[in-house]
Amino acid sequence: IWHNVYHDEKNILLRQKDIIRIGLVQWQMRHYHTTEDLLKQVEYFVDAVSDYESDFILFPELFNAPLMGAFNEMDARHAIKELAKYTAPIVEAMSKMAVSYNVNIIAGSMPEIRDGKVYNVSYVLQRNGVTDSIPKIHITPSEEYEWNIQGGNEIKMIEFKGSGRKCIFRNSIFRSMLYETLDSKIIDAIKNTNSGIASQIK
Question: Can you tell me the distance from the alpha carbon of 75 to that of 70, in angstroms, rounded to the nearest whole number?
Answer without folding.
Answer: 12
